[in-house]
What does this fold into?
Amino acid sequence: MDKNNLRHLPHKTIERLSQYRRALLLCHANGKTHIFSHEIAKIQHITAVQVRRDIMLIGYTGTLRKGYNVEELIVLIGKILDTEEGLNVAVVGVGNLGRAITNYFRGKRTKLSIVAAFDKNPDKIGKKYSGVECFDIADLKSLIKQKDISIGIITVTPESAAEACKALVEGGIKGILNYTPKPVNVPPHVYLEEYDMITSLEKVAFFVKTH
Amino acid sequence: MDKNNLRHLPHKTIERLSQYRRALLLCHANGKTHIFSHEIAKIQHITAVQVRRDIMLIGYTGTLRKGYNVEELIVLIGKILDTEEGLNVAVVGVGNLGRAITNYFRGKRTKLSIVAAFDKNPDKIGKKYSGVECFDIADLKSLIKQKDISIGIITVTPESAAEACKALVEGGIKGILNYTPKPVNVPPHVYLEEYDMITSLEKVAFFVKTH
DNA sequence: TTTGCCATGTTAAATCTTTAACAGTGAATT
DNA sequence: AATTCACTGTTAAAGATTTAACATGGCAAA
It folds into this structure.
């Protein structure tokens, strides 16, 4: 594996690696020691070539006739995706979506941990949600530094999205995942990923319509 | 606009059209009658060329120096994305995520309506969530037909995803949006879109790490 | 031992998507 | 009336991603 190339892994490959790992962890839990590219492919609904190509890109090489060593591959993907010390994450907006995400992470062994939730509703501040304490969104900026938070997930209402984003950026956040349908602005040094559920649903509707 | 070409609109263009429309509706509400490609671009964080190209693909043409007519464009995008009668949607799994989605749709004027929610928890069955009644997931198959549901959104736990998907398919669903981290299998006549929040978060983490 | 098979690893082609380049055009300006 | 300017519409190039094609290699069976 050439360290230099890891920087240039395609976005899509990164996404798939995350998914491969999850599938592999399941296999590992079931006692499977080796896996073929076409088995991974089947689970993920993609082609075996694509799996092999992704694995090639990260510089791993399987054994002929036995496929890939599950454990080794899990470790290697971890080296690529994770940081050694892990990263701290904050959820901004403790509505249903924020709680869904927080709850999903409960007990997951992962290098990403949600260490704080934020909301402006006084009823929520001070409470714990799935083990994560909710703080006043007014304290967001200072707590990012204090708790060494690198990533913020925005799950507030669309109207508050810009404000939440601003606070995150000013607090020195490094990456933002915005689940609001309202696009937000970040300076170039902050990595931004946006996802819009309504758009996805409308996309499904379009293809249902035209099929 | 050539009807034949609409079938071949790129996936990415479809997604952006949905987003343009939402931005345009906001502008319309603010009394704006015309808009330039670069204005739309700014809102969506993309380039003006891309906006113009998308609009070209759907066969609309703006006026020089004044840009696009907001209202006309909204109507045209509607003709492309929506069906005349609208489509019915079901949410399968009334956890936090299911409720987040259901709630988000409350009162939205749209051609997509969530007409039923499903869960297996007896405490939830019979209750209403954001105005949507929750039914027993055991009745999913029959209710799809009865309520003419075209699209199913899967928000159950990963363990129940396959089962929920199977019921949807057997009920004759036409499109599925799977928010479970567990990929599901559908026959070729069912349109499937999957989104995995964990993957997105891990992707952000990766780019935070490498930047 | 030889043959066939079924894997991986890799390069090349095809496809999809974005970006660049630029022609055309009408209002405003002089 | 001519000129400038700021837009749109469109084609061509570049870039990203997926898919195809095939070389290679080792195990199993004849």
